[in-house]
Amino acid sequence: MSSEAKPIREIRINPVVPAEAVLVATARAMRPREAEQPAERDTRTHVESCPFCRGNEERTPPTVAAWPEGPEWEVRVVENLFPVLGTDDRGGPLVLGLQQAIDGYGRHEVMIDHHHHGVALHEMSATHLALLLTAYRERMRALYASDPRLRYVLAFKNFGKAAGASIGHTHSQLIAMPVVPQNVQDEFAHARSYHARHGHCIFCSLIDEALTYEATIYDRDSGEVRRRIDVGQYVIERNERFVAIKPFASRFEWEVHILPLAHQADYLDLADDALPDLADLLRRTMHRLDAVIGGAQYNYFLHSLPHCAECAGGEASYHWHLEICPRTSIPTGFELGSGLFVNTVSPEEAAARLRAVVLD
Q1: Cα separations in angstroms, 297 against 133, 136, 258, 321
Q2: How many angstroms separate the CA atoms of 184 and 97, rounded?
Q3: How far apart are CA 351 and CA 184, in angstroms?
Q4: Domains assigned to the chain
Q5: Cα–Cα distance between 298 and 258 in angstroms, integer?
Q6: Which candidate, 173, 170, 172, 206, places its Cα nearest to that of 187?
Q7: Dihedral sign computed on CA atoms, order 207, 209, 213, 219
Q8: Residues 320-355: pLDDT tens digits?
C-alpha cells in the first residue's frame, strides 16, 4: 500500500464516459493473498518453431504488407489463421423475436511487430517503433478503403499470457468490423455532446487540466480541506507533440493514456514527421511501466475516429488516443457483477512512481 496517511475510498467517474466508474480503494492492497509470480518471458532472438520469426514465412498465410518488403522485413502483416470476423458475407441480419444477429463480416490481421522473437516494446529502438506506428496507420487506411461496410478498425496489442497473448513472438492485431464498438461509441457520443455544450473537445480540456490545473478536495461533512491535488501530477511523459497521462479514474492500477497535444480526431491523419515523437514517448512510457511493474504484461489499443455516416462531422469533438492497460490483477466477482472497476493503487501514487523512474 502507499505511504498516504489515510487510505483512499473514492468512486471516480470517467469524464469521457460518465457511465463508467472506478472504485479507488487503496486499503484493498493490504488484504492477504498469495504473492504474484513474476511473468515468464521468452527473450530468445529466433525460435525455429515460431511461425512469426523471420525465415519461417511459409508457416503463416501469405504476406499482406511488409516494411520493408522482402526477406529482411522488420514489420510484417498476415491474415489471422483464426479470425474473429471473416470475409464470408451471407447477406443479411437474422431476427428471431427479440434475438438479433448480423453476419460476423470483417477482416482480422496479425502484425508481426519485429523480427526479433522476444523483444519487448521498450527495448525496440524509437526508429523501429516509428515504423510500427506507420504500419498501423497504413493498414488502417487500407482496410477502410477495402470495403465501405467497414465502420471501425481497431489496432491493439496483447503482450504476455495474462493479457491473452497466445504466441510469445511480439505481435499486434487489427480487426476491421461492420459496427463501431460500444466503448468507442460511448466515447464519441459524449465527446460530441460535450463539444455541443462547451464548444471544445473534452480530451483537449483534460489535457489542459493535466498541464495547468490544481484542485482542492474538501470533506463533505466538515468542509475542511482533505487534500490538494496538482492535476499536473498525472503527467507521466511529455514532448513537443504528445503527452502520456495517468487517468484520474484509472480502471487498472498502472493504466496510462497517450494523446496528441494538438487536437486530432483520426489517427489516419497523423503526419509522418510526428511519428518519431510518438515513438519516443511510447518507448519511454513502456520503459517506465516495465521498470515499476517488472516484466509488464499489458493490452493496449488505439481509439480513433469511427468511419461511419452517423459519425460524420465528429472531427472537432473526438481526439484519438492510445490506452495502455497493464494486467497486474484479475477482475473479481464484484467487478464482473457490478461493472465497477476496482483500483487498489491510487492514480496519484502510481503516477509519482512512474515519473520517478530514471531513464537514460
Answers
A1: 20, 21, 18, 20
A2: 28
A3: 25
A4: 15-29+40-83+101-355 (3.30.428.10)
A5: 15
A6: 206
A7: negative
A8: 999 999 988 887 888 888 888 899 999 999 999 999
Query: Which backbone phi and psi does 166 adopt, to 5 degrees?
Result: -95, -15
The pLDDT value recorded for residue 191 is: 96
Residue range 276-332, pLDDT digits in tens = 999 999 999 999 999 999 888 899 999 999 998 888 888 999 999 999 999 888 878
CA separation for the pair 297, 331 (Å, rounded) = 15
**Nearest by Cα to 88 from 101, 102, 78, 103:** 103
Residues contacting residue 329 through CB under 8 Å, at least 6 positions apart: 252, 253, 344
